[in-house]
Every structure is written in structure tokens, then in C-alpha cells.
Model the fold of this input.
Amino acid sequence: MMNNILVFPMLLPILAGIILIFFRTHRRIQIVVSLGTMIAVAVISIYILNTIQTDGILRLDFGGWAPPFGILFVADSFSMILVVTTSIVTFICLLYAVIAAGKQMNTLYFHPAVLFLNAGVIGSFMTGDMFNLFVCFEVMLLSSYVLLTLGGSKRQLREAIKYVTINIVSSWFFLVALAYLYGSVGTLNMAHIAMRVAENGQGPLLTTVSIVFLIVFSLKAGLLLYFWLPGSYSTPPAVTSALFGALLTKVGIYALFRVFSLIFPHHPELTLSLIGVMAAITLIGGSFGAVASNDIRKIAAYNVVIAVGFILVGLAISTPLAIEGSIYYLIHDMVVKALLFLVIGAIISLTGTTKIEEMSGLMKNYPLLGWSFFIAMLSLAGVPPFSGFIGKVLVSEGAIQNGNLVLLALALLSSLFVLYSLLRIFRNCFWGETIISKDEQLPLHKGILVPCLILVLLTAGIGLGGEGLAVYVTDAANTLLNPEIYIDAVFSQQQ
Amino acid sequence: MKINDVILKTVAKAVVLVILTFGLYLFFSGHHTPGGGFIGGLVLASGFVLLFLSYDVETVSEGIPISFKKMSALGVLISMTSALVPVFFGQPFLSQSFGYFDLPIFGKTELATVTIFEAGIALTVVGVVVNIILSISEGTK
Done:
């Protein structure tokens, strides 16, 4: 049976990106094609996600080469949930770019780069082959290099050098780990690797390989090894930061979940404890960074770090509840981080500064923007009607069940730090005496608020309608915790 | 003072021809023996780079008025389209097929759709490599 539809979420952005290269100077074509593509990807991936609920995990063997010989795409609920969220968030960010950014941005390969970035992200989520995962990572990283340096201000280039270097080093580690893995189990198909590791037992050598993978993906996800993140996420234009904050670290997190639930789940006392310790340190470090900084972009970037720590607390606990919580939190975080970075981008473009002490009383000038920020803050802190709440509750419940009280305490404390760091922005920038008078205030382009408000509605919607997502999230967590479902789906003959 | 590079230019003219031929040979031999679009493309690109080195960018660009950026995009487009075609015939994405044909001069020849896919890859590689070299050379001015 053919599931050719599986390739389209990755193929459509690539094709659209290529076509847009030929029409670089046509702003209208760029906008229409890229927005249209993301809508199509969203629709297709929602359709696939629903098909999985009835037909089980889907797979597509490229060129008809049966696994483990060929490369394949595997769609389970976990990956498709992320693909759906990715396409929706990208659509909204592109909308912001179209409205807010100037003509230069829209004609300088920005749209093709975003589309290629999406192809890499979506490919990483869907591939069932370790080497293909590496390739998709590279597609994503190359586009992110372009996006990071686009505009070419001095600050951007300085951070880009750090970012490129760190990613080349980690890609090299990835390759080394792949070589070791291939040398020990003789296959690159993820399900086949998982099978062989289970058959032969996860010996010391394989556990070492798993630690190398842990380092690689931690570098990409910003787990413990996040020192590069605040700098490079806070320099590019708002849209790019929003895309990076929403999507890039999530790919690393996805890879950690996939690798440590499917391939190396056999020594949780070592691997998962290590992830737990790293998540704990990430939470602490991120919290300090967020509280200590006076630059609103830096504060937002440190909030990305805290979220990474929180999501991986779920993996470290690895009970069904905690994994479900992590998945909810992943969806929530992609939406709200985009919102946070877009609102902050709007604030910076209106005030021309990034320092919180140089702003005051913006609430009077731009009330809607202020309330958008307020909701983003509540949602990130995990206040009930919004989307952060479900994830936090489930992860905490999982931690209590597991008796992992240290992680529980740190996860909850980090929420307070998130709230405090963002309240500082809210108090300093939005409250207080209005220093910009009505006459000299820059007009806020009405359209800029549209993408922000869509995201606000989304975060409220996910919070209130979490029940509707429950089917998908439960299935995703179930597949993650029972890797044999995934393996059986890859090796079943009737597909 | 202008460097006397008559020898370089003369040799380059001959060598480029050899390199390009060898690149094409590698490209076509890739079907059953070592070679293929990527390697062929790299060799072809090295021929272009040698031209750029021995002459200057302006002269070569005048002689070969192609946008290498668009060339690499075209390459990906060809590869992706050829990979997409089997989908419309009920085959999995990226499926390839081949057949034997009696051609006038070559006699019985194997023609495979994978050649189209590989041609796309070769174009992409040439476009990207030359583009990188050209970008670096721009930076020194």
C-alpha cells in the first residue's frame, strides 16, 4: 500500500522554496506561494494525523525499497502533532513577516529560507532513518544560517559565527555517533536499530554511543549546553527569532524523545537520570538568566531554555502522564514562544530599544499589544485557562507518581521564575508613567496585531479545548512508551 | 605589474575540456559503476572553477552567461519533479524504472529514469560549488 501523502509535508515547502528562488523580486508571488504552501501542509498533516488514529502508524518506503534497506518516512501521532503545530506556527510567523517587515526582507530569499527550514524541521520529525535525520537536521541548519545572517548587521554576524561553529561541531559529533552506531548494529533504520539493540542488549559500548547522541541533541535542543542560545536567538529580526524559538530547539527535543524512547530505553537508570540532571541544571540556569537580564530579547531567549528543561523533565520521569504532559507542553510552547517573540519584536520596533529600563507606560499607547503580552506571560507561567496549564499539571502529576520530588520542585519553581522575569517586563514596559505622549507615539501597524491575536486565541483554544487533543496526545505517548508498536508498524508487510 | 599567465591560460583551455569530458563520463558511468550525479557534478564544477581561476570572473561570466544560483535551484526542481512523477502512476515517491531500447547509433541501450534525477543532482552540485567559489572571490574585493 502506498502512503505517498506522507512525503508532501516535506516536499511542498521544498518545491515552493525552489520556485520562489526564480521569483526573488516579486513580493506578491513570494507572499502568496509561501502562505499557500503552509496552509496546504497544515491541512495535509491534519489529515494524516487523523488517518493515523484509525489506521495506525503510516509509513512510506521511498522508491519501494522495503525496510530496513531503504529510507522511509514514518508518521506516528507524536511526529504528526509536531508537524501540524510547526506548519500553523510558521504560517502565522510568515503572516507577521508579510505585514511587519519591509520590502527588503520579503524579497531577499526570506521566504525560500523559511520554507527550506520547514522542510528540514518536518523531515526531521517524519523520517524513520537515522542518517536521514542527520540530513534533515543539516537542511534545517543551513536555512537557519541564512535566516540568522539575513540583514547582516554587525551583531547578527558576530552571533552567527558562534552559532555556525557550535552547530558544525555538533553535526560532526552527530556523524561520529552515527558511525559508531552503524559500526555496532550495522543498520541505520531507526526501528531496525531498536530491534537489534533490544536483541543484543544495550552493552556499555552502545550506552556510550547513546551518551554521544545525548550530547549532540542536547546541543541542538539547548539542554544544559545552551550557552550559545540566548545570544543567537536574540539578534535576528523578530520573525526569525520567533521561528527559531518556536521550532529549532523542538527538533532537538523531538530527537531526544525518539532516540531515548525507541532505541536506547534499556538503561533508564543511567540515560534518563542523566537527562533528569541535565534538565534540572537547565531549569536553574535558564531561570537565573531570565531573571538577571535587562534586555527583553535575552529574557525571551532564556525562557526558551527554561521550557526545554521543563519538557525534558517529562522525558526523565517517563511515566505515561509525564510524557503526555511533555507533548502538551511542546505544542503549547511552540505557539506561545512564537507569540512572545512576535510581541517583543513589536515592542522593540515601536520603542527602538531593548532595555527594560528605557521603556515605561506602553499600556496607554498600545493596550492590545500589552494584553497580548500579558496573556503570553500567563500562558507561559501555566495559569489555568491557557495552554501551559495542562502540560505543567500532567508533568507534575507524573513526577509525584514517580516520587521524583526534586525535579517536581525545580519544574514548579521555574514557572515562578518565568512569571517573575516576564512580570518585570510587564511592570517596567507597560505599567508606570507613560513617557511617550500621544503625539509622538509611533503608529502601531494594525495588521501586526493580527498574527499575535491569532496566537493568543490558539493558546486559549489549546487550554480550553485540551480535551479535543487528548486522543492524539494519548496515542503519541502510548507509542513513545511502547516502542514495539513503532517497530511493528515499520516491519509490517501489508503496508 | 601584470603576471604573465599565458601558460596557465593555454593549459587551462585544454585541461578544462578534459575535465568536463571526464565529468560527463563519471556522470553516465554512475549507473552501474562508481560515479554518478554528485561526483560528476563536482568534477564538472572543478572545470568551471579552473576557468574562473585562470581567466577572471568577468571574462568567464561573459562567456558562460548562466546564473549559477538559479542553476542549482533548477537542479533541485528537476530531481524533485522526477521523484514526484511516480506518485501519479501509483508508485511510491522516488520510484525509478528502466527499459531497453534500440537506438539508431548506440544499438540496444538501457535508459533509466534515475538519470533524470541524477542530472538534477549534477546541476545542483555544479551550481552550488561554483556559487560558493564566486561568493568567496567577491569578498576579497
